[in-house]
């Protein structure tokens, strides 16, 4: 069971989803998403472009935020919009915490909706992927 | 050199490109690709893997996880498609590119078995002086429709060239 309309209120924080990507997961994501840019799995290539390390795909962090919302609303609810900006890089084998706070609860066109501020943060607490979302609640 | 004396990075050709729709791309959503995407993200909800669980939850088939908008049908005889924003050459060459952000609006369910058609257009082009130097910020809007002609998703992507 996911979140229900009655229990949701503005200002509430939703359960955190913690990720920690192995390099294997990044390769799996490359195959699943079709993004084979080598900075995400080839150390030498990443270094040659000036990076210190291979980096986590921005779109994977967008997908993590999608999972954060899905895990919260479940299959009775749904995701209407997810948007985020890639502000900071994240690296394999480090915690990426996906978090969200409800900023607005309202009804529109017969649907029960909530807007959220969402983000990923690294182990230092920096928000590397800030964004906003709208979900439908049962 | 002050900014006033420099010509805009954005050429007339680039401005003319804004709003021009691309040729359509066909994307397939199938069971294997849904499972692969869900596994890559790390989903544990069985609706993304087990068709019975998906139907029991009210879906037509395995639902596409957020962020999955189908896989383009690969054609080895066609050169890798250049996105609209990359086909435009700014007045001064910019070598590097960053993905600035992704925003997806979902208007209807997308499930395994769907065949989507996408078209995209550059929505805006801006230039900015940032810590990376001269930057060109392009937003591209891509619209996804299913076989029934319903718009299922609209993705806005931000690309940064510098």
> Ends of chain A: how far apart?
10 Å
The structural domain count of chain A equals: 1
Q: For the largest sheet of chain B, list the strands in their spatial order.
A: 2-1-4-5-6-3
- State mean pLDDT of chain A (0 to 100 scale): 96
Mean pLDDT of chain B: 90
Number of helices of chain B: 3
Shape of chain B: elongated
**Number of DSSP strands of chain B?**
6
Helix content of chain B: 10-25%
Q: In oligomeric terms, what are we looking at? A: heterodimer
Number of continuous helical runs of chain A: 3
Report the C-alpha radius of gyration of chain A, rounded: 16 Å
Could you tell me the CATH topology label of chain B: Thiol Ester Dehydrase, Chain A
Roughly how many Å apart are the termini of chain B?
18 Å
Write structural notes for this entry.
- The complex is a heterodimer of chains A (138) and B (162).
- Chain A is an alpha+beta fold and 138 residues long.
- Chain A has one domain (5-22, 58-136): Hotdog Thioesterase (Thiol Ester Dehydrase, Chain A, Roll).
- Helices cover 24% and strands 34% of the residues of chain A.
- Chain A contains three helices and five strands, in the order βαααββββ.
- Chain A has helices at 23-33, 43-48, 58-73, and strands at 17-20, 78-85, 95-108, 111-121, 127-136.
- Chain A has a five-stranded antiparallel sheet with strand order 1-3-4-5-2.
- In chain A, β4 and β5 form a beta hairpin.
- Chain A is elongated and about 55 Å long.
- Chain A starts with 16 loop residues before the first strand and ends with a strand.
- In chain A, 38% of the residues are buried.
- Chain B is α+β, with helices and mostly antiparallel strands and 162 residues long.
- Helices cover 14% and strands 35% of the residues of chain B.
- Chain B is built from three helices and six strands.
- Chain B has helices spanning 12-17, 31-41, 51-56; strands at 25-28, 71-72, 97-106, 115-130, 133-145, 151-161.
- In chain B, strands 2-1-4-5-6-3 form a six-stranded antiparallel sheet.
- The model of chain B has no long low-confidence stretch (mean pLDDT 90).
